[in-house]
Every structure is written in structure tokens, then in C-alpha cells.
From TrEMBL:
SMART domains to which the protein is assigned, alphabetical: DeoC (SM01133)
Family: Belongs to the aldolase LacD family.
Lineage of the species this protein comes from: Bacteria, Bacillati, Actinomycetota, Actinomycetes, Micrococcales
Alphabetic keyword roster: Lyase
GO molecular function: 6-deoxy-6-sulfofructose-1-phosphate aldolase activity
Pfam families: DeoC
Name of the featured protein: Aldolase
One BP term from GO: 6-sulfoquinovose(1-) catabolic process
Cited PANTHER family: SULFOFRUCTOSEPHOSPHATE ALDOLASE
Length: 303
């Protein structure tokens, strides 16, 4: 028998039909304007680089995430956290929480993450402790391992259904090499990944955005339209791989093509990792960064 988590009600101004559990993460405009800070090793590395290679203790990672949760308050429509360092942030969150259920690693030391496995230590009790309203799984998709990716995605969604909460499936193309390094090749891979992973019926799909500047806008919109056609669920974009300055326009291109918002990490908080006082930077800048992205979408929606 499946176990179920009690749902929390969040009021919005959005037409409630159709309505599903994932809609708890929509903002008052009906979009997903969420922040991700489930980074673990990469966040430690970023903070260390910002301090000229100094060692970063576990409690500093926890404090960074908590400071961010307090800084953005209820301006975000959702907050993505990890169980390793995110519990205190979850306790201070003023918006619904998504809990990461992935263990990530690299096949080659120092290279980008390209291996993921389902974290069996994320149990129903963990979900309850975090008050999480959804689980998230980051899945590296590779053209030569498509069947394996679908099987892993299926296992994740089965876990979500067992727990009785929505699943956010994040498909990222790894590695980016050969034909996939070109904008056109990357576009094809993003569309193919969405097509493959749609088979497991995620509640929300999260993917990369193709955008390196205005020259990519037309292809970014076309890619987004194709991804929208492949999916039977809403989808959002992540900010990794796009500069903080360009991310609002990248989101706009994706939304123009049918995306329903963003689940952004680095575009909101990465500069804080290089600040003398990360907490102070987050309090001063993270809400503004988040607002600038969300407002760019809203102005388009109002046209």
C-alpha cells in the first residue's frame, strides 16, 4: 500500500483547473519561480574557490543554504534542497520544499557529473522531516545509454508514487562533446532526452536551456517548442551553463516556447560564494536576482 504525505494548501490567483499536487509550486501568476540549492560537492568547491582554496566545513554549507532560505522568504514558489546539508534551511523555508533524491558522481575525477543513482537513504521519514512536497532526481542523459536513462527515471517515479508525492525529473545532456557541442546538436539532444524521459510521466520536467546570447534566441525558442510537444507535463529550466546576466533572457526564450518557469540555482546565488560574507550578500542580492528573473517572464505574460 502506498504511503501518502498530507498536502499543504497555498492560495494563488491561478485558475485551479486542472489542478494537481505539483501546482503547489506555482506562484500567484501560475508560473514556477523556484530556487535550487541542493548542490553539495560543487557548492563546497565554489565556496572554497571564493576563499582561495580554504577548507569548507559541513556547517558552512548548511549555513549558506539556511541564509538563502531566509533571504528569499516567500518570494520563491519553491526551494530545492538536499538531505545532507539542507534540513535547517527546510525548517526556515517560507515556500514549499523539493527534496533531492539523487547521488551524483563523475566517471572521471574532476570532470562534470555524469553518473546518478537513486538515493535509498531518502525515505518516507526523510520526506516528512523536511516537510517536502516533491522529490527531484537529476538524470544525466547520454545518446548511447538511452534505455538505461529511462529505466532509472522509471525507478525514481515509482519511488515518488510509493511515497505519494510528485516527482521532478531533471534531464541533463552529458557529456557535451562532439556533435553535442554545437548549438544544433545540443538542441537535438535536449529534445530527444525530453522525448525519452516523458515516457515515465514525471509531474514536472526540468532541463537545460540553450542560450549563449541573443544569437541563440530563435533556436532556443524553437527547441523549447519542440520540448513542449514531447512532454505531457509542465517543464522548467535550470540556470547552470548560462551566465547570471543572460539567464532572464534564456528563461524568456524557453517560456516563449512553452516552458512554465524556472528552477534556478547559480543565477540567484552563485556570486555569494565569492563574497567576504556570503550571508550578507544573499540577504542583499538573492531576492533581487530572483525577482529580476520572475519579472522578465511576467512582463511577457502581460502582453
Amino acid at each position: 500500500m502506498s504511503a501518502h504525505i498530507e498536502e499543504t494548501s497555498y492560495e494563488t490567483n491561478v485558475d485551479p483547473v486542472p489542478r494537481g499536487p505539483i501546482d503547489v509550486f506555482r506562484d500567484e501568476y501560475g508560473m514556477f519561480s523556484m530556487v535550487a540549492v541542493d548542490q553539495r560537492g560543487s557548492l563546497r568547491h565554489m565556496l572554497s574557490e571564493g576563499r582561495q582554496g580554504a577548507a569548507i566545513a559541513d556547517d558552512e554549507l548548511s549555513s549558506f543554504k539556511t541564509d538563502l532560505a531566509l533571504a528569499i522568504g516567500d518570494q520563491a514558489s519553491g526551494l530545492l534542497l538536499d538531505q545532507d546539508y539542507g534540513l535547517e534551511a527546510a525548517r526556515n523555508a517560507q515556500c514549499p520544499v523539493i527534496l533531492a533524491a539523487d547521488i551524483l558522481s563523475s566517471s572521471q575525477p574532476g570532470d562534470p557529473m555524469d553518473i546518478a543513482q537513486l538515493d535509498d537513504s531518502v525515505t518516507l521519514e526523510t520526506v516528512q522531516a523536511f516537510g517536502a512536497k516533491a522529490l527531484k532526481f537529476l538524470l544525466p542523459w547520454q545518446p548511447n545509454r538511452r534505455t538505461e536513462a529511462v529505466e532509472l527515471a522509471h525507478a525514481f517515479m515509482e519511488r515518488c508514487r510509493e511515497f505519494g508525492i510528485p516527482g521532478v525529473l531533471e534531464g541533463v545532456v552529458r557529456p557535451r562533446e562532439g556533435h553535442l557541442e554545437s548549438a544544433e546538436g545540443f538542441s537535438e539532444a535536449l529534445i530527444m532526452a525530453a522525448s525519452d524521459l516523458s515516457k515515465v510521466q514525471p509531474d514536472l520536467y526540468k532541463t537545460e536551456v540553450l542560450y549563449g546570447g541573443e544569437q541563440d534566441r530563435a533556436l532556443a525558442v524553437a527547441t523549447a517548442k519542440s520540448i513542449t510537444r514531447e512532454l505531457d507535463c509542465p517543464w522548467v529550466v535550470l540556470s547552470s551553463g548560462v551566465s547570471a546576466e543572460e539567464f532572464p533572457e534564456a528563461v524568456l526564450a524557453a517560456v516563449t516556447g512553452g516552458a512554465s518557469g524556472f528552477l534556478a540555482g547559480r543565477a540567484v546565488w552563485s556570486r555569494a560564494t565569492r563574497a567576504a560574507d556570503p550571508g550578507d550578500y544573499l540577504r542583499s542580492h538573492a531576492p533581487k536576482n530572483l525577482q529580476s528573473i520572475a519579472e522578465r517572464i511576467r512582463k511577457t505574460e502581460e502582453r
